[in-house]
Every structure is written in structure tokens, then in C-alpha cells.
Amino acid sequence: QPAAGPVELKLVFVGDSSCGKTSCIVAHTQGRFVDAQPPSADDLQLGEVIVGSTVSMSFQLVNNTADKLRFELPETMPDPFGETLVLQPSKGVIAPNSRQPMMLTFKPTAALEATKVEVQAKVANVTLEDGEPDEDGEPPYKEVEGTAREIPLFLSALADTGLIECDTTEIAFAPTIMFYHKVFHFPIKNPSKIAA
Asked: Disulfide: which of 64, 106, 144, 174 matches 125 by Cβ 3.0-4.6 Å?
């Protein structure tokens, strides 16, 4: 026969990495599901980031053509990212059938929630010309007419303070008998939008 009144359970989540333990806890405690869809190649997801910390991710721009390809990204990222997000290098030339390693660094200074913020990458086929590279190390080039286009990249991130609150300020246990134990229960909560 079930007990009357509230029932208290202790749950232990066991499983391999990336099997859904955290998703289950987030769904129960925050009432939302973690997006389980794998991102597409143009969707750069920075995940959950604590305000004031820094997260970096690397990815590659791929040139699958037989021509040299020049890329250029905005110096300043669109809102809500602005100067808190840096993409390096911001321009360059990718050799035919080659890859360009890229580094994305995010250091949020305030809470933000951004889903698929569009960043336009300008690309064009180019031919290299004789001469000295510019101050950024980019060689002189001439754009092949009619090849300029914009390719969107999508940036997503969730930044908030990693804060856990507890209203209990004092735990007082009475003296116990040897080998006897007492348990004190107290609630803690996470008011932020990220797992703390």
C-alpha cells in the first residue's frame, strides 16, 4: 500500500558519456529539453557558458574547388555577441582542395541567449598576384569576376551566471549516539539558464 503524503526518493543516474544523464536532469529541474539534434556544418554551437569565462572552439573552412578561394568575415560579430566573440583569422585565401583552420573565442560579459545568429562570410574565387603580403599576411589577389557570394554561418550560445542558491544558512545536529546517523535535507536551486 502506498505511503500517504510526499514521498522522497534518491535517484542515481548511471551511464556512459553523452547518453542523456544531464539532459534528463535539465528536463526535470528546468522544464526544458536540451536540443538533441546534431548541428549542421554551418551551425556553430558554443553551448552553455558561464559569464566571465572563456570558451573556444575550432572548426575548418573547406575549399572543395579547383580554384583559390578568398574568405572574409566581419571584424565585429552581430548582436548580441559584438566584441565578446572573436573569429580568427577573419580573412585569408584557401588553396584549392584545402582547409583553413579557424578559431572562435567567446567571453561573455553578461547573460545572453542567442540561437542561430547569422554571420555572413564573403567568399570569392581569386587569382594571386605578385607582390608583398599586406600587414595581415594576406597575399595580393584579384577577384575572379562573377564569383563573389555570401555564405551564412549560424552562431548559437547561452551565457548566464553559474549560480546555485541555498536558503538554508545553518544546519544544527544534536549529539548522536555512536554509530548512529542523522540526515538533514535542504533545498538548493539553480535560477540561471545554464547547468551550474
From this structure: 144
